[in-house]
Amino acid sequence: MNADSQPFRSDEEQLPSFEDLRIHYFSDKSESRKVGRYREYTTKEYAKTALGEIELRQWQDMAEKVISAHHEEALQKQLFEWVQETFPWLHTPSEQRVESLDLHMSRMFDNPLWVQFVPFNQRYRPEVLREVHLVKVKTSCCEGDGVTTKEQVEEAPNRGGTICCPNCGRFSSFEISENAPERETAKAKERGR
User: Fold this and answer.
1) Which of 78, 129, 126, 124 has the alpha carbon at shortest distance from 101?
2) In 36-98, where do the E strands start and end?
3) For 63-95, what is each residue's pLDDT tens digit?
4) DSSP category for residue 117
5) How far apart are the C-alpha atoms of 15 and 67, rounded to whole Å?
6) Which residues of 84-153 form beta strands (DSSP E)?
């Protein structure tokens, strides 16, 4: 049997890294057992990670232990709040919890290619935006100015010449409003100007 298909067995002495717990995909496994003359069916959800397939509940517990070990509970709370407010297709707290933990394990809040990088960090971690090259853009969908990262602008040719509109979230063609980075404006906003 392939090592990748083996279920993960927890080793209490070794705490996995964020990268170890990043989800590659989800899977379900159905099981049945005979109860009297009837069959009882259950389904378990699994997360495929670098460590193998881990039952989803166990993955959640492990992810929270890693977050706690790195003292990032406040950041996880912010991600959960963000997911509740901006991911309307996730209806239950359980779905929202899994998504926020997945974002945390993937370190999306540090990835300037994440389409929600600027709004999330403006709200919760404005100091991060001082270190990133921000660009003012004008999108064809909203015709209004918005701010995105240089990395998203550079990635646009791979996305059909579009970026995620900072105003409405649709992928749209765009123009750079200014050649100068938005960094000074971000600092001014932080100072309350």
Assistant:
1) 78
2) 38-49, 52-55
3) 999 999 999 999 999 999 999 999 999 999 999
4) H
5) 11
6) 134-139, 145-149
Task: Report CA-CA distances (Å) from 158 to 141, 152, 162.
Answer: 19, 10, 8
Token pair 């945390």 is found at: 104
Q: How many residues in the chain?
A: 193
Structural contact between residues 10 and 62, judged by C-beta atoms closer than 8 angstroms: yes
**Two structure tokens written together for 17:** 């890294």
CA angle, 98 as apex, 95 and 100 as ends, to 5°?
105
CA distance 170 to 165: 5
pLDDT in tens, 148-192: 999 999 999 999 999 999 988 899 999 998 654 445 444 445 544
Place of tokens 């994440």: 114
The pair phi, psi for residue 71, each rounded to 5°, is 55, 45
* Of 99, 92, 107, the residue nearest 56 (C-alpha): 99
CA nearest neighbour of 86 among 109, 106, 63, 105 = 109
Exposed / middle / buried, residue 70 (Cβ in 10 Å: 0-12, 13-18, 19+): middle
Q: Closest Cα partner for 115 from 170, 179, 190?
A: 170
* Tokens 């709200």, located at residue: 123
